[in-house]
Prior knowledge:
- Chain A is mostly beta strands.
- Chain A is 0% helix and 51% strand.
- Chain B starts with a strand and ends with a strand.
- The chains are: A mainly beta, B mainly beta.
Amino acid sequence: QQPVQSPQAVILREGEDAVINCSSSKALYSVHWYRQKHGEAPVFLMILLKGGEQKGHEKISASFNEKKQQSSLYLTASQLSYSGTYFCGTDRTGNTPLVFGKGTRLSVIA
Amino acid sequence: EPEVTQTPSHQVTQMGQEVILRCVPISNHLYFYWYRQILGQKVEFLVSFYNNEISEKSEIFDDQFSVERPDGSNFTLKIRSTKLEDSAMYFCASSPYETRDRGSSSYEQYFGPGTRLTVT
């Protein structure tokens, strides 16, 4: 079951914040976030484990609401380099392949 | 920093031909995957491979596809009798996934740079 991401696209000015959401109708074990720049491979950002700790970068953080089966990715003080398409990948049992959402296209402008 | 590598970066083939896409996962990783991404669309899972056998495959991964780990380092995806709709970016990924009898854990998957397959 494919997770649903929102918004589909967002445009930010440098320094602004953004939130990208990922929702599933099924119970999740973990949520993985990736960023993909045009023509490049997806780059791992972080993983949110059910009941576990969060990993991530400095100005990019995320939360995982197990009850709502929803994860949110928070981008603060956005930089031009944050531009790209953000995908969430969901894992239902801890040993299943990731099912990716359709992505959120983020554009940061000067 | 170790990384997943893939060759070739771009493969052009005629419809009906066979192609082999190659990947070298990160050396101490245990779990391997193939994904594909049709231009402008989401990343789709094809197959996962663990302990020298397929552990899971999607409905996309039909008899046209096969995977192999011929020499302990390379991980290949073979597509027999390619079709126009096979044109896509194919990504290999690997994960330092622990053995299942240690309990479930979910580890990040590291993607290779991809092979762009164009079927004409």
